[in-house]
Structure formats: structure tokens, C-alpha cells
């Protein structure tokens, strides 16, 4: 059974969310936890053998000083503190960029330096886990600074693995998808918002904090003694399947059984009326009093939508299709946007 008895573990961002869940599990597994964050009350919620360190990770000098003063000799490190300042790419500000990198990437380097120096001095074969994100691998709407900072964090992980490996110190990243912390659950609890994202995850689920904690504990533990430099997605297969369907709301997971499906554009997508296009003008389908432009007609094979119908044969085929019990799927704004880019 996994045990961290006798280990001193620094967890940054331990006052809430994934970091707090991680700190709580490490305490259960016998570790002494050095819990770093700004919110004293959140840190005080942790019960057991805890050293709280109240520090602002975005202040490089202040963070170094706090670690030197209060962290002590750390055996294992979880770099979890993170922020997201999201904006459309044309509006992303230098301040947001710098503030994001200061916490998500620079603070992780500073904490790793502090801990690794002590590990090396004591000849401790320690481990570092950086809590990155699926955002390190894929672009997400309006997440420029966040995605870039998490990609930087993964690069730092590899660098730590390279340069600290000779001292027996391992470094890995975990890269979760949407993880339902209390705050995220409020944001993603709305099924209308969650459905398009979930429909692109082969396993069809968001992560729970415990899913991330399980992976962090594995990577910190001796069971991962030869694992270093990895970036481990905890994402139900999301980043492994970039061409998974992007169709929702209304996407019917049972359609994956190979049912023939008609794909239409939603009459309003992202609040904007669909611009005219030759195909949608030629082919439309009426649902009640709504005119639905038809984008495609095909079969779900696994997760792929195949067999686009030829323009001109579409209208008749649609009728036969629906008449014979075929399903209909409305596209999400994002799918519509990419379709528009490639087809208009
Ligand atoms: N939840 C998700 O969907 C998700 C998905 C993928 C990756 N992640 C990553 O997982 C990590 C934890 O996310 P979460 O969802 O648990 O977020 P959260 O609930 O907002 O918690 C963030 C933690 O980071 C700390 N933090 C932020 N800025 C800080 C600063 N300047 N100085 C010190 N501590 C700071 C916060 O502490 P204070 O408030 O006390 O300062 C808090 O404990 C982040 O790195 C995030 O990018 C989250």
C-alpha cells in the first residue's frame, strides 16, 4: 500500500481545489505537508501534520524568501498553484500574460530549485509533480496565456527530468481535463455548456479532483521509480483523439453505435445567424418552424462522422433518412466555426 510516512511534501496552491485534495490525501498517507497558498483560511482547513506557508507565488523574491524561511527540507514537491486569465487572442494583455506565467511556470521553477537543492544536499531521491493541463497540448478558445504557460510548465518538467535525473530526482507532469473542483463544478455544472466539451472526450466524463490526486500520488511514489519527464493526460482520451466529433449540443452518444445520422447546423450558433453558403441554401430541413441548414449526412463509425452526402442528392436523402428513423444532430458553435473556415 502507498505510504508517504516520513516524507515532507510541499504542495503549492494547497488552500483549495486540486491542491487541497492532494494535500489532504498525502496527509492521510502519512506525509508531513508544507501547504503553500495566499488564503490562510483555506490552508487552515487541512487537518494533521501541516506547516502552512502563506506566500504569493507570483512574487519571485517573496516566494524564495518564504520557502527558505518556512519550507524546510522537502522530499517531494507538487507544483499545483495555477491561475487562468482568459481573453480573446486579440485582447490578451501583457499583464495577463506575465501574471499567468509568474504563477504557472516561474513559481514552479523557483519551488523546484528550492526543493532540489535540499534533496541533492541530503542525497534524497525525491520527486516533483507539476500540475499542468490538457491546455499544454491543445489550443482552447480564449486561453492563450494559460495554454502557453502550461506548455512552458511541461517543458520545465522535461528540463528538470534531464538535469536532476543524475541526482536520482524524478520530474513529471499531470495534464488534467476539466476537473470538477467546487469552483469548476459551478462553472461546468450547466449541462448545455458541458455537453460540447464532454462529447469530445472518448470516455465522456470530466475529471474529479481524486482522479488527479491518484495520478499525482502514483508519480510521487516508488511505483513510478523509472518514470521521469512524462506528461500524463488525465482526460478520458481527449488529447489522444483530436479528430473526435465536435458536434453538440444534441450530440447523441448512442449514435456511436454506427447509427446513421444527419448533421445540421444550429439555426443560431454562438448568438450569430449562420451566414449564407451554397450548401446550406440548397439543403435545409424544417424542424417545426425552424429552418435547419444541412451540413452533412453520414454514419458514426466509432467516433467519426463519415460518408458525406453529395450536394444535390441531399434533400431527397434527408427525407428518406429521417423517414427511416435516422437521428439528427445539431452542430456546436465551435464545429460550425471550423466548418465555416474550411468550407465557406
Ligand atoms: N480545475 C480544472 O479544471 C483544471 C484542469 C486542468 C488543470 N488544472 C490546474 O490544476 C491546478 C489547480 O487548479 P484548481 O482548479 O484546483 O484551481 P483553484 O481551485 O483556483 O486553486 C488554485 C490554487 O492555486 C493557488 N494560487 C493561485 N495563485 C496563487 C498565488 N499567486 N500565490 C499562491 N498560490 C496561488 C490558490 O491559492 P490562494 O487562493 O490561496 O492563493 C489555490 O490554492 C492549477 O494549476 C490549474 O491550472 C485545473
Describe this structure in words.
The longest helix is centred in the N-terminal third of the chain and has 29 residues, at 94-122. Strand 2, helix 2 (40-44) and strand 3 (50-54) form a beta-alpha-beta unit. Helix content is 38%, strand content 20%. The protein contains eleven helices and 14 strands. A seven-stranded parallel beta sheet has the order 3-2-1-4-5-6-7, with helices on both faces. The protein has a domain at 8-234: Rossmann fold (3-Layer(aba) Sandwich). It has 344 residues and is of the alpha/beta class. It is globular, with a radius of gyration of 24 Å. Residues 245-262, 264-283, 297-315 and 327-344 have low confidence and may be disordered. It has helices at residues 17-28, 40-44, 60-71, 94-122, 144-164, 182-188, 191-198, 209-220, 278-282, 314-323, 333-343, and strands at residues 8-12, 32-37, 50-54, 76-79, 127-131, 170-176, 231-234, 260-265, 268-269, 272-273, 284-287, 290-301, 304-306, 327-331. The structure holds NADP nicotinamide-adenine-dinucleotide phosphate (NAP). NADP nicotinamide-adenine-dinucleotide phosphate (NAP) binds at residues 13, 15-19, 37-39, 42, 56-58, 80-83, 103, 131, 133, 176, 178-179, 181, 183-184. Homotetramer.
Amino acid at each position: 500500500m502507498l505510504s508517504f510516512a516520513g516524507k515532507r511534501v510541499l504542495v503549492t496552491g494547497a488552500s483549495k481545489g486540486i491542491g487541497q485534495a492532494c494535500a489532504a490525501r498525502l496527509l492521510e498517507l502519512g506525509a508531513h505537508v508544507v501547504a503553500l497558498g495566499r488564503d490562510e483560511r483555506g490552508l487552515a482547513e487541512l487537518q494533521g501534520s501541516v506547516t502552512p506557508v502563506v506566500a504569493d507565488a507570483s512574487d519571485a523574491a517573496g516566494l524564495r524568501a518564504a520557502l527558505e524561511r518556512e519550507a524546510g527540507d522537502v522530499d517531494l514537491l507538487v507544483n499545483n498553484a495555477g491561475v487562468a486569465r482568459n481573453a480573446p487572442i486579440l485582447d490578451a494583455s501583457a499583464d495577463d500574460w506575465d501574471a499567468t506565467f509568474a504563477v504557472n511556470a516561474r513559481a514552479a521553477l523557483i519551488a523546484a530549485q528550492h526543493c532540489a537543492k535540499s534533496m541533492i544536499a541530503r542525497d534524497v531521491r525525491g520527486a516533483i509533480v507539476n500540475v499542468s493541463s490538457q491546455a499544454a497540448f491543445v489550443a482552447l478558445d480564449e486561453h492563450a496565456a494559460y495554454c502557453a504557460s502550461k506548455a512552458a510548465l511541461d517543458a520545465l518538467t522535461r528540463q528538470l527530468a534531464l538535469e536532476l535525473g543524475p541526482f536520482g530526482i524524478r520530474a513529471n507532469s499531470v495534464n488534467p481535463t476539466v476537473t470538477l473542483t467546487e469552483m469548476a463544478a459551478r462553472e461546468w455544472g450547466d449541462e448545455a455548456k458541458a455537453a460540447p466539451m464532454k462529447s469530445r472526450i472518448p470516455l465522456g466524463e470530466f475529471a474529479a479532483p481524486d482522479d488527479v490526486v491518484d495520478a499525482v500520488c502514483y508519480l510521487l511514489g516508488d511505483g513510478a521509480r523509472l518514470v521521469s519527464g512524462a506528461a500524463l493526460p488525465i482526460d478520458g482520451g481527449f488529447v489522444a483523439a483530436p479528430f473526435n466529433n465536435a458536434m453538440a449540443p444534441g450530440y447523441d452518444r448512442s449514435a456511436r453505435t454506427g447509427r446513421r445520422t444527419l448533421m445540421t447546423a444550429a439555426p443560431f450558433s454562438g448568438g450569430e445567424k449562420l451566414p449564407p453558403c451554397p450548401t446550406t441554401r440548397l439543403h435545409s430541413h424544417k424542424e417545426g418552424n425552424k429552418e435547419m441548414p444541412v451540413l452533412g449526412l453520414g454514419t458514426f463509425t466509432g467516433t467519426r462522422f463519415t460518408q458525406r452526402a453529395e450536394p444535390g442528392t441531399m434533400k431527397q436523402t434527408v427525407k428518406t433518412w429521417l423517414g427511416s428513423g435516422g437521428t439528427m444532430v445539431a452542430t456546436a458553435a465551435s464545429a460550425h466555426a471550423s466548418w465555416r473556415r474550411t468550407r465557406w
